[in-house]
Design goal:
The chain has helices spanning 37-44, 47-58, 70-79, 82-85, 89-101, 115-128, 131-150, 180-185, 190-202, 206-211, 244-251, 272-288, 298-311, 316-323, 328-352; strands at 9-14, 17-22, 28-34, 217-220, 224-230, 237-241. It has 15 helices and six strands. It has three domains: 9-58, no CATH class; 70-150; 180-350, hpI Integrase, Chain A, CATH 1.10.443.
Length: 354
């Protein structure tokens, strides 16, 4: 018997069954196989799977799919849809990874895709990859389908309203404690200090921090300095005041780039992810040394900024506007713990009354 080595495969056991897929494209070669590892090896050696494996290696992955199929919709979305071109680079990268995973389903007609089938795909993806990836995949589909519906390519959006596979921690990205800020900034290098200051004193998102430029830092007749920019996440025109602490810090910096946030060598960060990773590694080292607590994140400083506004009497809508968010709901999201504090204070103040 001739042994054939099948390289580039991932073999995943899940709930008593085996799933085999191509590592690069995530295409399924074999799914739901029941039996032992030895049984699986024998099954992979059978002629039909050898042929499927070899067919995948020689197939043109950029082939054109028939109109009305999932593959044709993806090709249209990534090359012709105006909405796609406006997405942030990080979002495009997530969408590309999601569509690559779905490539085995590209011949499926759009009109035949149902929500129950999408739940099945989501659940399988959560096992083969991870739950958060499965949720991003559903977000990519929903975004694409919503545009396809508007253009008559499909009747409805079956991905709309699908539940999340990943259960988010409601306490993730918490507000920093008063002691953690001085501990984190006492010896922070400039490439870390800039993101921390921008998140803490103007509440910028990571992608805004990585891209905001000195031209957005402008004089203001009433308040000294302000930021005027368009948020990449929602294309919202944003105007935000700059606190004196941040003004003093920014005015002390050497301008080595058009971008405010730069790496050690003075050049802008290659991506938001690179900047976020550097900050995260720095914070986790401080946590390991016992200087700050667990759960301290760059986004948590955005929460700290919003909480300070909320404690100062700003409404949910005011907080959302200061954060560059369109929805008042987001202002409430960032300050919900402040509202709870206010209730507790009212309760104790009422207790003091005779």
């Amino acid at each position: 018997m001739v042994k054939v080595k099948l390289s580039g495969l991932n073999i995943v056991p899940a709930r008593g069954k085996w799933y085999v897929y191509h590592r690069d494209s995530k295409e399924i070669l074999l799914k739901g196989f029941e039996g032992s590892r030895a049984d699986l090896v024998r099954r992979l050696a059978e002629p039909d799977l050898i042929a499927a494996y070899n067919n995948r290696r020689t197939r043109d992955l950029k082939r054109t799919y028939p109109e009305g199929t999932l593959g044709a919709c993806v090709q249209w979305f990534e090359t012709e849809c105006p909405t796609y071109t406006k997405l942030a680079d990080a979002t495009k990268k997530d969408y590309t990874a999601a569509f690559q995973y779905l490539r085995p389903e590209f011949d499926v007609p759009l009109h035949s895709i149902t929500q129950p089938e999408l739940y099945e795909v989501r659940d399988r993806c959560a096992v083969q990859k991870w739950p958060r990836f499965a949720d991003k995949m559903m977000s990519a589909l929903s975004s694409m389908f919503s545009q396809a519906v508007k253009r008559g390519k499909m009747p409805t959006n079956p991905a709309k309203g699908i539940d999340k596979a990943h259960r988010a921690d409601p306490n993730a990205n918490r507000e920093w404690s008063p002691e953690e800020w001085p501990a984190a900034t006492a010896n922070a290098p400039t490439e870390i200090m800039i993101p921390l200051m921008l998140a803490r004193y103007v509440g910028f998102r990571g992608q805004t921090i990585a891209s905001v430029q000195w031209k957005n830092y402008q004089p203001d007749a009433r308040f000294g300095k302000c930021f005027r920019h368009v948020a990449k996440k929602n294309a919202e025109q944003s105007w935000v005041l700059v606190a004196p602490e941040l003004q003093a810090y920014l005015d002390s910096l050497d301008r080595t780039s058009l971008n405010i946030a730069t790496r050690t060598d003075g050049r802008p960060w290659a991506s938001e992810k690179e900047m976020q990773t550097a900050v995260s590694h720095y914070l986790r080292r401080l946590e390991k040394d016992g200087l700050i607590g667990a759960g301290t994140t760059l986004h948590g400083l955005r929460v700290s900024y919003a909480a300070e506004l909320g404690r100062g009497g700003a409404s949910n809508g005011d907080v959302a506007a200061a954060l560059g968010d369109r929805s008042e709901r987001m202002g409430k999201h960032y300050t919900r713990h402040v509202e709870n504090e206010t209730r507790v204070i009212r309760a104790f103040e009422g207790k003091k009354k005779p």
